[in-house]
Amino acid sequence: MRLSAADHVRTQHRAADHRADRGAPDTGAAGTVAADPVTRDAGALDVPVQPNVLAQPNIVANNIAADHIVPVPRPRSGLGRPTPVLSALSVPGIATVAVVGMGYVGLPTALALHRQGIGVIGLDVSQTRLSAIRSRQVDLLPTDLGRLAAALEDPGFRVTDDADELAEADAVIICVPTPVDAHLNPDLQALAGACAAVVARARPGQVLVLTSTTYVGCTRDLLVTPLAERGLRAGEDVFVAFSPERIDPGIAEHEHTTTPRVLGGVTPECAQWASDVVGLLTESVHLVSSAEAAELTKLYENTFRAVTLALANEFAGICRSLDLDPVEVTRAAATKPYGFLATYPGPGVGGHCIPCDPHYLLWQLRSSRTPAPLIEQAMTAIAERPHQVVARAVEVMSDLGRGLGGARVLVVGVAYKPGVQDVRETPAVEIIPGLEARGASVWYVDPLVPSMSLPDGRLMASHASAADEDWDLVLLHTVHPQHDYSWVSRSTTVLDATYRFESLPSRHVV
């Protein structure tokens, strides 16, 4: 239910009274959160850009007016939600939460908050995205689509492009994309614009939680420092924290409530208040000593994943050279109950996270001349993987007595992972032009991706009758659950970059 002005004032007073009654969390030396991690049960002016922010890549002062949020791309997918673990009544003073950025993280976050009885303001400057949400034409799991339909009927759940509504919220969660640019440097335009809009409308008593993956120190640069210039002190007037998102698109098992969240406050008081807000989303909040520790935690998580994926792809090549099956070997190794994490090879690494996030760390390390050769090599290997797929296609066709020149090639699946519509950073956008550059005529089929843009600006549409045609080469890139791929067995030559079709007689692997 939308609060009236009088209700909003009463909510502010409740928040102030509650803060006065609360004690600070256990602290260690120098007023920081105790070194032992704590797991808690979930029970208007233009803002000038700071000098240290101007030194960051892709932040232009004129592009960060407080009344403008840089448009957010339309990431997709969401998660199912089990029974709520908290009710809104268990967090005094938190009646309305604003979610800035209604993409693949923000929309599921908003729906999870709504399930707890929290009033939600979903902010996004993309009218296309807002229209898609209102018409329910978004990539969510079926359970979340049902929840979206119900939420849109509730006056307490509203989506808007009016940033001034942020002032009505008791807490603000920032969920905007943080990609890299063409030079693999952080592209912080969307994040900087969103933070500037939040800062310009922040009011005493608000809790501000940044969830977007970013460099270490960003929370202070884009929130704490400009807030202080407005006279709002973190830990006293407003409560600022970093709690990185943890969402596995398309996987219902990894739900908000059952996935622990890491959180680091700018002060212990910030951590206490922000953990109450994040605790509405999850059963446990793991507190760390600072926002910076939480920022680096997220970079470590995704860098770890990048390194293991690069190793899995390299090991697949080793297995092929020894005439062994990498999936069989990986499954066997995974029987060891400790010291091994099963990671399987594929056509490459896509999505908004793994191909991008380690570059935030590498960029920051370069500024301090700190070497990270293992991470650099892993990211190089990830970048090279689509080219290896193309080279393998050339090799397979050459071994059959013909090259790719003039060949009819079908790429099966172009989403970056099974079960999603997302094509951001998908290896397919490099594989398809690579095959074409070697003379092939290329089509794709993907039941979840009706069309996609290629790097040269062309719009390619999914082939409607691909299963009924003959192809010189079928390249398996992404196979979605609950879709029929039995027709692939009729193909004379298959390059299986998914390593999933073990029984195909015409199968080759990368």
Automatic annotation (TrEMBL):
<dbReference type="InterPro" id="IPR014027">
    <property type="entry name" value="UDP-Glc/GDP-Man_DH_C"/>
</dbReference>
<protein>
    <submittedName>
        <fullName>Nucleotide sugar dehydrogenase</fullName>
    </submittedName>
</protein>
<keyword id="KW-0520">NAD</keyword>
<feature type="domain" description="UDP-glucose/GDP-mannose dehydrogenase C-terminal">
    <location>
        <begin position="410"/>
        <end position="503"/>
    </location>
</feature>
<dbReference type="GO" id="GO:0051287">
    <property type="term" value="F:NAD binding"/>
</dbReference>
<dbReference type="GO" id="GO:0016628">
    <property type="term" value="F:oxidoreductase activity, acting on the CH-CH group of donors, NAD or NADP as acceptor"/>
</dbReference>
<dbReference type="InterPro" id="IPR008927">
    <property type="entry name" value="6-PGluconate_DH-like_C_sf"/>
</dbReference>
<dbReference type="Pfam" id="PF00984">
    <property type="entry name" value="UDPG_MGDP_dh"/>
</dbReference>
<dbReference type="GO" id="GO:0000271">
    <property type="term" value="P:polysaccharide biosynthetic process"/>
</dbReference>
<feature type="compositionally biased region" description="Basic and acidic residues">
    <location>
        <begin position="1"/>
        <end position="24"/>
    </location>
</feature>
<dbReference type="InterPro" id="IPR028359">
    <property type="entry name" value="UDP_ManNAc/GlcNAc_DH"/>
</dbReference>
<dbReference type="Pfam" id="PF03720">
    <property type="entry name" value="UDPG_MGDP_dh_C"/>
</dbReference>
<dbReference type="InterPro" id="IPR036291">
    <property type="entry name" value="NAD(P)-bd_dom_sf"/>
</dbReference>
<dbReference type="InterPro" id="IPR001732">
    <property type="entry name" value="UDP-Glc/GDP-Man_DH_N"/>
</dbReference>
<feature type="region of interest" description="Disordered">
    <location>
        <begin position="1"/>
        <end position="33"/>
    </location>
</feature>
<comment type="similarity">
    <text>Belongs to the UDP-glucose/GDP-mannose dehydrogenase family.</text>
</comment>
<dbReference type="InterPro" id="IPR036220">
    <property type="entry name" value="UDP-Glc/GDP-Man_DH_C_sf"/>
</dbReference>
<dbReference type="InterPro" id="IPR014026">
    <property type="entry name" value="UDP-Glc/GDP-Man_DH_dimer"/>
</dbReference>
<dbReference type="GO" id="GO:0016616">
    <property type="term" value="F:oxidoreductase activity, acting on the CH-OH group of donors, NAD or NADP as acceptor"/>
</dbReference>
<dbReference type="InterPro" id="IPR017476">
    <property type="entry name" value="UDP-Glc/GDP-Man"/>
</dbReference>
<dbReference type="Pfam" id="PF03721">
    <property type="entry name" value="UDPG_MGDP_dh_N"/>
</dbReference>
<keyword id="KW-0560">Oxidoreductase</keyword>
